[in-house]
């Protein structure tokens, strides 16, 4: 027997073994799923206890809403997805009265407006 024939025979045996294993796997039937008990809603777990470590030195990136008409360049840069150039364009297009006014700034699209909406005020 040539070595190639032995290799082909090994592949054939592995293929048959995989097919047989697949055929033996249990199947989930619609009737089985319907007869299963309904899943109960579990109450959320209580909040973990607060760590005694002091976090006074940690400053959050954005606290509350940022007023686009009075914010500094650095305040605008701290907004998500806003870099230095975009922050400068936001400053250049002041004053703003609504999100539609902010939409006129180059680089701000629908997704950006959606991300900024809960973080800004006018």
Automatic annotation (TrEMBL):
Coiled coil located at which positions?
A: none
Task: Spell out the InterPro entries in the cross-references.
Answer: Endo/Exo/Phosphatase_dom_1, Hlx-hairpin-Hlx_DNA-bd_motif, RuvA_2-like
> Which positions fall inside the Helix-hairpin-helix DNA-binding motif class domain?
74-93, 100-119
What species was this sequence derived from?
Answer: Deinococcus roseus
The identity of this protein, by name, is: Competence protein ComEA
